Amino acid sequence: MAPSEAFNFTGEVAIVTGAGSRMDGEIGNGRATAILLARQGARVALVDFNPTWANETKRMIDKEGGVSEVVQADVTVEESCKAAVAKTVQLYGTVHILVNIVGVGGAMGDATKLDVDAWERDMRINVTSMMLMSRYAIPEMRKNGRGSIVNMSSVSGLLGGNPSLLYPTSKGAVIQMTRAMAAQHGPENIRVNCVCPGMRINQNLLKQEGTGWDVGYAILFLCSKEARWITGMIMPVDGGVGPSLYS
């Protein structure tokens, strides 16, 4: 069945970081998002540190007749982010959509116990990587006069209540970065929104566990024509499955 016009991504080029995310028996957030974008007609750059994981996502997209290519990158390294965007442009000519899904649970412990080097490493994975990918994707979006960026946070970034200080702090930073980017790039018709996966089954009102597909559909909506007036939105979504490429 052909996609509805509002969710027709034919001609769109998307970058999904963490596109190989998976767990045994479940679909990961990045993998689900990449598959859904391709299913709706987008050409998708599958960015992942682990090309084996991303190649499995590509296999699933190929099976459905979609278009994608694996782009190996370390999104904590600026030159690697620059190269990933350049490779996408080489493959498909432009960039319309950037979905930043990379993230880790990270260093455990409170301020008195956590390892400082691990803190700095994981903040770079969870926060800095999204800034670096945006740094090189936004100039391509400007050429088109439009664009959509979706950052992955967590309800922990809104509520705290996590035994790790690093995780809610970094996810809260992603939320505030999204709001700041939305204000900065809205006048350029580049929308920036955020999805916050969580709560688990015993914590949410519906008492139902979501999946990576639920997160993927939320991202699909935020990238779609249906959401063309939406920017700066922080969208909680029940469920979500990692891990990312760094887990």
Automatic annotation (TrEMBL):
Biological-process GO terms, alphabetical: fatty acid biosynthetic process
Classification via PROSITE patterns: ADH_SHORT (PS00061)
Keywords, alphabetical: NADP
KW NADP (keyword) present: yes
GO MF assignments: oxidoreductase activity, acting on the CH-OH group of donors, NAD or NADP as acceptor; quinone binding
Recorded family membership: Belongs to the short-chain dehydrogenases/reductases (SDR) family.
Protein name listed in UniProt: Uncharacterized protein
Organism for this UniProt entry: Neoarthrinium moseri
